[in-house]
Amino acid sequence: MKFTDEELIVVEKLEILKNEAGSHSPGIFTFRQKLPELEIKIDACFLSNPYATDLFIEYFNKEILETGKIRDLLECYPSQNGVIAEILADFLDINAKNIFIGNGAIEIIQAVIHNFTEKKIMINIPTFSSYYEYVKEGVEVVYNELSKKEDYSLDIANYIAKVKFHRPDTIVLINPNNPNGAYTRVSDVQRILDELWFVKNIIIDESFIHFAYESKNYQLVSMANLVEDNPNLIVIKSMSKDFGVAGIRAGYGIMKKEYVQTLLSNGYLWNSNGLAEYFFRLYARSDFAMRYDILRVRYIIETLEFIKELRQLPYIKVYPSMANFVLIELTNGILASEFVAKLLITYGIYIRICDDKIGLEGQFIRLASRSRSENNYIIESLKSCLEMNSVLDMVNETVV
Questions:
Q1: pLDDT number for residue 391
Q2: What average pLDDT does the chain have?
Q3: Topology of domain 76-285, CATH
Q4: Can you provide one Gene Ontology molecular function annotated for this UniProt record (predicted)?
Q5: CB burial of residue 76 (10 Å; 0-12, 13-18, 19+)
Q6: Burial of 269 (0-12, 13-18, 19+ CB in 10 A)
Q7: What are the C-alpha distances in Å from 293 to residues 61, 218, 224, 242, 289?
Q8: Can you tell me the distance from the alpha carbon of 325 to that of 308, in angstroms, rounded to the nearest whole number?
Q9: Which fold has domain 5-38+291-399?
């Protein structure tokens, strides 16, 4: 990638921001504060369904802002954890005592890992870094390294054998996985539950499950209803991705009643804000659910089209995904950090660099699907950027 002297200054600032953010990416508000000279046109780094955000805003404007009920959300205390769980119970067809409400899924991940993992945890890599970052001192971490030759998908037989060998008290399966979007079918997850019955905690993170499907009509799949029959199963669900409401900080976990009670007794009784409670109440309503599901399917179809177009671009490998993002390997010698910087500076597209993802071999980026018009702009920008780099390579070779 070729940068002007002015652009190189921005590149250096970007690197500093990323280092400060650690294993996560700096948010839009951070960019506006630290790099006001940059105009971000499309946020394709953070993963959310923009159509669902639009739907939530429609309801919020009509029911909260236009009616003046925003005062209630600001002035009144929100309900306690157990009350919000009751709101979700009928909608999810889950006993309320099995539901734990979190200030985002990240809080649930931390609470579960800190309170219930005792000696050893097995984590697939590459994956969401918080699962190994939140492990307490003294707990052994065993990594199950997914194979690049198999597109970082999970080999079920090998995985089960490895768990039986290491005998961890906790295992983690993100489904679909982050950052590659690989999906493990319900039958394979059931096999894991059946054969690994001895594992104390089987955590299944379904934060991207609304984008996965096993039928032609894109019917939603989930393992949440199996918790009652599998007391070692813990299902964690973020609402940020599929409903496009990351700023609200809303998530829930489904686990055995004893675990829920333990968490409620140790500091998580009153951990939601009024806006999050409004969202959960809206989420459980049939009118909202019906309209949301139409948008969910529309978004899946458009994402599939987006991935198909990405695969036509030169100099990249697009890994199979059943999420709302794709893992992309740069195959023409470009450094991922430079590629991300170029897209941001020149085209205003913010994407995720994957240099900090342990378990990846090569130069990788993660790209989120957005609306159809935004995806079209992303495709054209990627194409221009890749072709520009190819021309520069040819010029350099000629000069040499």
A1: 46
A2: 93
A3: Aspartate Aminotransferase; domain 2 (3.40.640)
A4: pyridoxal phosphate binding
A5: exposed
A6: exposed
A7: 20, 10, 18, 10, 6
A8: 12
A9: Aspartate Aminotransferase, domain 1 (3.90.1150)
